[in-house]
Structure formats: structure tokens, C-alpha cells
């Protein structure tokens, strides 16, 4: 009897403790729910896409927040609001490219009568970085005030999904905010990869170069991506001994004839290319430099060299693996962590993705040009309009123009020649092309056949222009307008009927007559250049 009473008492004590603890859990979660701040839309990532999407949604009357947080690079570099483009991408890159172009301009100026001693011209890395960073900081400030004036709540905090409708945002002091939302946009972009080799911690990436306080000195750029060649281009252009180590081809994914043209130009300008090699280790040499050892891709040979700076530009990883996406059910491409989307919507209907994180291969049709600022911006704005304005326009990932800011700039829109051959058939493809020498280059006697323009036309469709490629000064400025023409379905006849603007480089597109199929030379000669610059193309004169 006494035992039965004891058991009953213990049971009561246990039950009351359990009830108490359940009540306290309930109270805690009620507090947490009370603390959660709810938005119509939470955008994760305050870069090109995220900022555009959040501002547009707020403009349409929605309650919107953005979480943006920059984890420092392994070398310790960090930056402000605006994402890759503003801080460690397009903007500082183009400004440093401009610094290099100005150096070339100073050399050319001597032929134009400027009394400059080219041997006495010096470049200050510190001044350039200081001024470029001052501009970047002004943009960071501008983005913050724009968010404020657009009524977008900004959390400078790292966002992690707790479940499909709840995010935990942690700021740099560790303060946590719980945010719930009806819809989420993942716009977290990517970060540079570094090869996993001994000594990788001695290397930097594009996340570091633009804010580097000390001069880079003799630099090895590892990789042949557009980021690699652009960085190598401006580093060499402002006076550093620069080498590029390539495992295979330059500018994978771009038209390979154009890629070759750019590489040749860079080599002729004095950039060293270490081809078919991969780095195996980096260590500090007694000289204080970095000793890089490398081996050939077939393992048959090896080499080494000392550099002040080793910059990896071997591609980028998207930032999707440390934000709790597994708690949401959002599917990722297991190969690269990218987010497959249909009209920017993931497989979880209220979670969307824009910008660099989306899986271009999973688009229909696939696109290799998803990782660009204007693509992220346009996709973000259109998404907000579809979500909150009843708009129906979808992002068109085809016909995206772009430019590579190598010393010889390269602009393109549409298919590469390789893709066009596969898509339309070699027999259906007419390639009109010409080498050209900008008029500005004649007086300082710069290269005759460095610049090149080609139009890819589909003969089976009234010679519709399906690709346009140009290497030359201001290629980006040349290409943008043609992208509009291609969107409107321009044919070769439209180009021929268009009157050129003389004397420009872009007018070559209005007078293209030589086809690749004809086998005729597309190279410019001294004579053709002279007559061309008198206002008539050599080809036209010769034909008469
Ligand atoms: C060197 C270089 C040069 C380039 N040049 C050009 C060019 O000339 N033209 C062009 O069109 N494009 C260029 N690009 C590409 C362009 O910068 C990107 O395509 C563009 O910035 C992508 O925008 P996004 O919104 O997808 O992401 P991002 O701009 O990368 O922004 C993502 C933001 O999200 C933050 N974030 C990530 N995870 C979280 C999280 N969990 N919580 C909170 N915040 C998070 C990141 O820190 C970052 O601030 C260049 C890129 C590089 C690297």
C-alpha cells in the first residue's frame, strides 16, 4: 500500500514537472513568435538583384526587408552594401581598366604632340585604390539611403532559414532577429573559388585586389576566366609584371576566335601566358616573395616562379550552402549548389531566386549569361512586378549582351560561332567579318589587325543576325545598341541599309562584305586602312 502511494506521488511530481516544462516551452515560443517581425517580402542579399527587387516591391506598396551581410574573404577583406558589382566586381574593375587605358593613352599622346617623357610616367597604385575605394564607399552610402527612402528595412545581418517561412538574421555583434515573410527572394550571389593546394592562404582573389593597400608587384593570375584576364589586363596596364596561368582555354563559354584574339593582344602587349599548367603549391620564399610550383595538365612537365602576389580567378561558388536552405525544401543543383528556377520561382512556391545563384543550365532554353549585373537587376524588377503588380512579362535570358574589359575590349551579343554552328548548322551560317584598325591607332602606329568584327547570320532565316562579336576600343559602347537591333530581329540587310557614323570603329558593321566561306582575307592592309579613313571601305573601292 505504502509503495503504491509512493509511486502515485512520484507520478504526480513527474506529471507536474512535465506540464510546467511544456508550459514554459509554449511561453518561450509565444515570445519568439511575438518577437518575429513579419514582412510581405524578405530579400536575402543586398547586391545587384536583391536591391533592385526589394526597391521595386516596396514601390508597389509592399512591406519589404533586405538582409545583407559580407563574410570577410580568407585574406580578411570586407565591404559595404551593394554586393559584388559595386564593391568587388564591375565598378572597381572598370575603373582600374580605365586607369590602364589612360596609361596607354599617355603613350599614344606623344605621337599626337604631347611632350610627355614616357619613361618618366609613373603610376601610383595607392592613389588609384584610394580614389576607387572612395567612389565605392560613396555608392555604399547611396544604396543605404536609397533603401531608406524607398521604405525598405535593411538588416546588415546574415540570414539563415529556420524553416520555410522563418529566417534568423544575425548581425556582426551576434544580435539575432527573427523574420517571417510571405515570400522570400534568394539573391545571395557568389564568392571566388581558390584551388585547394598547400599555401592557398598566401593567395588572394578578386575579393581582395581592388582594395589592396600595398602594390601587388609581380603578379601571377591563376585562371583564364573573364575575371582572370580582366585583372591581368589592368595589372599589366598599370605597370606590373603579370603572368596568367591557364589550365586549358581562355574565356570558356565565349566565342573562341575572339578569346584567341584577346589573348594574342595581351601577349603582344607583354603579358606572359603559362599554358596548360596548374599550380600545385605556394610557399614563402627566402626572398619574401611567394614561390609557386606548378605542373602541366598531362603531368609531363613542371615549373616554378616567384611572385609578389598570386591571384586566383578560377571561377566562383554560389552562396547557397550555409543559409539553411535544407530547412526549406528548396532544391539545389548538387553539382554546383545553384538554384534551379522557372521564372525565378524555386520548387518551393513562395521562395524565389535571382542573380548569380540561379542555375542557367536549368533554364529553358539554357543560358550561359546569367551571372551579370543587369541580368540580376532586370530579373529582380520583373519578378517584383509579376508578384505585386499583376504584370506578366518574364525575364528573357537570351540575347544578353556583355563586354569583357580586357586591354582589347570584347563585346558580344547572341550566339558564339561554335554555338551558332551547332544550333543552325554550319551550312546555314554565313559569317561576315573584318579586321580593322581604329583611326585613333594610326598616328601612334599601333597594331594593324588587332581589332576584329564579325556578324553571324542564319541563311535559312533571311540572314537574320544571330551573333555579333567585336574586339576593339569601347566594345561595350559599340555592342549595346546592336543588342536592341538583335532583339528586334535585325537581318544582314538591315545592317547594310544602315548608314554608318564616320569615322568610328562601329561603322564596320554597316559595310561588312567578306564572308568566312569565301576564303578571302579579312585582314586590313595599309592601303585599305588609308582609303577606309577617307570615308569609303577598301572592299567597296576594290569591287568597283
Ligand atoms: C571581378 C568581377 C567583375 C565583374 N564584372 C562585371 C561586369 O563588368 N559586368 C557585369 O554585368 N557583371 C560583372 N560581374 C558580375 C556581377 O558582379 C554579378 O553578376 C552581380 O553582382 C550578381 O548580383 P547578385 O545580386 O546575384 O549577387 P551579389 O551582387 O553578389 O550580392 C549578393 C549579396 O548577398 C550577400 N549574402 C550572401 N549570403 C547572404 C546571407 N545568407 N545573408 C545575408 N546576405 C548574404 C553577399 O555578401 C552579397 O552582398 C563581375 C563580377 C566579378 C567578380
Write a structural description.
The protein is an alpha/beta fold. It folds into three domains: 225 residues, FAD/NAD(P)-binding domain (3-Layer(bba) Sandwich), CATH 3.50.50.60; 115 residues, FAD/NAD(P)-binding domain (3-Layer(bba) Sandwich); 135 residues, 2-Layer Sandwich (Enolase-like, domain 1). Helix content is 35%, strand content 22%. It has 15 helices and 22 strands. Strands 1, 2, 3, 4, 5, 6 and 17 form a seven-stranded mixed β-sheet that branches. A five-stranded parallel β-sheet has the order 8-15-9-10-11. A five-stranded antiparallel β-sheet has the order 18-19-22-21-20, with helices on both faces. Helix 8 links the parallel strand 10 and strand 11. Helix 4 crosses helix 5. The protein is globular and about 75 Å long. The N terminus and C terminus are likely disordered. Bound molecules: flavin-adenine dinucleotide. The site of flavin-adenine dinucleotide (FAD) has 33 residues, from helix 2, helix 3, helix 4, strand 4 and helix 9.
Per CATH, the architecture of the largest domain is 3-Layer(bba) Sandwich
Number of helices: 15
Total domains, how many? Answer: 3
CATH names the topology of the largest domain as: FAD/NAD(P)-binding domain
Query: What is the strand tally?
Result: 22
Estimated structural class: alpha/beta
| CATH C-level label of the largest domain | Alpha Beta
Q: Evaluate the radius of gyration.
A: 28 Å
* Residues in helices, as a percent range: 25-40%
Bound molecules: flavin-adenine dinucleotide
Distance between the termini: 124 Å
Q: Beta-sheet strand percentage?
A: 15-25%
The main pleated sheet reads as: 7 strands, mixed
Q: What do we call the CATH homologous superfamily of the largest domain?
A: FAD/NAD(P)-binding domain
Pick out the low-confidence regions.
1-9, 11-34, 529-544
Amino acid at each position: 500500500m505504502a509503495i503504491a502511494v509512493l509511486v502515485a506521488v512520484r507520478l504526480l511530481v513527474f506529471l507536474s514537472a512535465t506540464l510546467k516544462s511544456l508550459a514554459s516551452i509554449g511561453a518561450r515560443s509565444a515570445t519568439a513568435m511575438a518577437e518575429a517581425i513579419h514582412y510581405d517580402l524578405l530579400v536575402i542579399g543586398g547586391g545587384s538583384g536583391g536591391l533592385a527587387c526589394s526597391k521595386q516591391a516596396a514601390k508597389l506598396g509592399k512591406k519589404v526587408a533586405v538582409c545583407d551581410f559580407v563574410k570577410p574573404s580568407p585574406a580578411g577583406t570586407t565591404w559595404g552594401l551593394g554586393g559584388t558589382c559595386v564593391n568587388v566586381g564591375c565598378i572597381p574593375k572598370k575603373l582600374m581598366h580605365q586607369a590602364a587605358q589612360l596609361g596607354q593613352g599617355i603613350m599614344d599622346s606623344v605621337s599626337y604632340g604631347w611632350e610627355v617623357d614616357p619613361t618618366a610616367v609613373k603610376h601610383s597604385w595607392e592613389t588609384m585604390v584610394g580614389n576607387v575605394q572612395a567612389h565605392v564607399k560613396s555608392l555604399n552610402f547611396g544604396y543605404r539611403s536609397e533603401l531608406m527612402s524607398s521604405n525598405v528595412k535593411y538588416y546588415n545581418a546574415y540570414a539563415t532559414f529556420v524553416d520555410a517561412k522563418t529566417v534568423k538574421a544575425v548581425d556582426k555583434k551576434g544580435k539575432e532577429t527573427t523574420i517571417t515573410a510571405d515570400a522570400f527572394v534568394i539573391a545571395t550571389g557568389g564568392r571566388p573559388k581558390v584551388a585547394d593546394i598547400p599555401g592557398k592562404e598566401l593567395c588572394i582573389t578578386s575579393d581582395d585586389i581592388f582594395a589592396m593597400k600595398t602594390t601587388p608587384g609581380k603578379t601571377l593570375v591563376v585562371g583564364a576566366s573573364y575575371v582572370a584576364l580582366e585583372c591581368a589586363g589592368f595589372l599589366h596596364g598599370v605597370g606590373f609584371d603579370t603572368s596568367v596561368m591557364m589550365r586549358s582555354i581562355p574565356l570558356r563559354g565565349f566565342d573562341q576566335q575572339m578569346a584567341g584574339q584577346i589573348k594574342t593582344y595581351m601577349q603582344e602587349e607583354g603579358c606572359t601566358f603559362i599554358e596548360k599548367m596548374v599550380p600545385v603549391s605556394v610557399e614563402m620564399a627566402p626572398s619574401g616573395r611567394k614561390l609557386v610550383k606548378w605542373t602541366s595538365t598531362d603531368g609531363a612537365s613542371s615549373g616554378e616562379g616567384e611572385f609578389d602576389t598570386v591571384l586566383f580567378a578560377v571561377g566562383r561558388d554560389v552562396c547557397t550552402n550555409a543559409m539553411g536552405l535544407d530547412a526549406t525544401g528548396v532544391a539545389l543543383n548538387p553539382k554546383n549548389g545553384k538554384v534551379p528556377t522557372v521564372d525565378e520561382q524555386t520548387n518551393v512556391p513562395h521562395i524565389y531566386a535571382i542573380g548569380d545563384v540561379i542555375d542557367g543550365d536549368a533554364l529553358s532554353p539554357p543560358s550561359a549569361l546569367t551571372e551579370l549585373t543587369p541580368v540580376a537587376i532586370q530579373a529582380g524588377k520583373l519578378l517584383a512586378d509579376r508578384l505585386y503588380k499583376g504584370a506578366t512579362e518574364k525575364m528573357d535570358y537570351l540575347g544578353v549582351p556583355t563586354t569583357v574589359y580586357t586591354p582589347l575590349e570584347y563585346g558580344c551579343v547572341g550566339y558564339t560561332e561554335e554555338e551558332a554552328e551547332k544550333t543552325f548548322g554550319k551550312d546555314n551560317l554565313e559569317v561576315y567579318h573584318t579586321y580593322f584598325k581604329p583611326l585613333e591607332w594610326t598616328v601612334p602606329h599601333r597594331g594593324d589587325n588587332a581589332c576584329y568584327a564579325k556578324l553571324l547570320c542564319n541563311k535559312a532565316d533571311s540572314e537574320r543576325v544571330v551573333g555579333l562579336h567585336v574586339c576593339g576600343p569601347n566594345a561595350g559602347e559599340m555592342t549595346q545598341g546592336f543588342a536592341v537591333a538583335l532583339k528586334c530581329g535585325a537581318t544582314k540587310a538591315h545592317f547594310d541599309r544602315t548608314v554608318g557614323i564616320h569615322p568610328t570603329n562601329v561603322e564596320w558593321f554597316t559595310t561588312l562584305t567578306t564572308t568566312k566561306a569565301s576564303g578571302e582575307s579579312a585582314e586590313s592592309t595599309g592601303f585599305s586602312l588609308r582609303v577606309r579613313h577617307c570615308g569609303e571601305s577598301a572592299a567597296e573601292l576594290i569591287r568597283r
